[in-house]
Amino acid sequence: MGTKKTMVVLAGAILVLASAVYADDAITVSSSNEIGSDIVTVTDDDNTFAGMYDEFIMDMTSERVDAGLDIKLQMTTDSDGVPEAVSWNDDDFDWYAAFRPVNFITLGFSTDFFLSGSYLAVEDDNIAGGKMGSDGLTVAYTGISGLTLAVTAPFGFDSEEDGPNKFDDDDKDDEDERYFDAGFGGEYNFGGKAALGAVIHDIANSDTRGWGIYGSLTPVENLALYAGFAYRDTEGLCDIVDKHLINASIAFTPGNWDFAADYITSTDEDFYTGLNIGYDVSDSVNVAVGGTLNGEYSDRANGTYVLKPAVTYTHSSLGEFKAEVDIAFVEEDFDNMTLPVYWKYSF
């Protein structure tokens, strides 16, 4: 049995045992399914089918035990837009399990959670450098009001040679050395008005060790600010990856309006910025227009611009429907257009 399957079985066994110990602990189950597609990719030369996907998410929560599953099936196409297969891989499969033996200690398996300042409102995603959890074992302490401390050790999902805990093989002074991959982080929340935290990854390996500092601020109702700095963020976001990354984001929701802006930059040349403006026409209809830009400071005109007008309809029993038009320009010339749509419903 592979490492990943072994860890899933182990986490499942722990959950069953924990559930048995806390049999009186009420469990809440929520699930959703999302069916979507970019429908068609339109270029100057051709129009091709863009494939489709189906994503199922289930969460089980209780006072002592939480667990979740996220599975995404993809219909892939070839270069001519002809469907090839319906499949999924490790990137389309996620899960987590968490057990609280006491109120202030959480044992988490595959629990990805982030420092709040790493959030990007337009992308609805987090900078990887702000991650306090991992795809392995994470132990979190919340015994002091407002303070969260966590230590994590990823499993060996990245390589067939890796053991139950991940090690990095690096060529250092012409010798192969192995380092235990572990991380540590902490965040303090100032009464819901602000948060400040820091995290360090791959502590034992000086060649790959990275760290980040992140903060968030909610000075008034409906306004949130996020910012952070990462050293050696090897994953990045929005195609911005560098030794140093700076991120900033703002979300403002006055009345029926919602405004969001993102910014990511390296300390070299690359940057990303995103903007979205939405308006609630009614309780069930929202219209929005957004856009993103990936470029270089020395040559902004030759960046990639994407314009994204969208409309979202929410029905109390049928779920959420969204239709969008993504129009991309590269070096000021039209590159392609897609028509992302999805239907998301809960049950």
How would you sum up this structure, described in words?
- The chain is built from 1 helix and 27 strands.
- With 347 residues, it is mainly beta.
- A hairpin with a 2-residue loop joins β25 and β26.
- The longest helix has 19 residues, at 3-21.
- Residues 1-6 and 157-176 have low confidence and may be disordered.
Question: Which properties best describe this structure?
Answer:
347 residues, mainly beta, 59% strand
Question: How would you state the average pLDDT, rounded?
Answer: 86
Largest sheet: 18 strands, antiparallel, barrel
Strand content: over 45%
Rg from Cα? 22 Å
Kindly summarize this structure in a few lines.
The chain has 347 residues and is mainly β. The protein contains one helix and 27 strands.
Question: What is this structure's SSE topology?
Answer:
Layout: H1 3-21, E1 28-37, E2 40-42, E3 47-49, E4 52-61, E5 65-77, E6 83-87, E7 93-102, E8 105-109, E9 119-120, E10 125-126, E11 137-141, E12 147-153, E13 167-172, E14 175-180, E15 183-189, E16 194-201, E17 210-217, E18 223-237, E19 240-252, E20 257-266, E21 270-280, E22 285-296, E23 304-315, E24 319-324, E25 326-330, E26 333-338, E27 341-346
Antiparallel strand pairs: 1-4, 1-27, 2-3, 2-26, 4-5, 5-6, 5-7, 7-8, 8-11, 9-10, 11-12, 12-15, 13-14, 15-16, 16-17, 17-18, 18-19, 19-20, 20-21, 21-22, 22-23, 23-24, 23-25, 24-27, 25-26
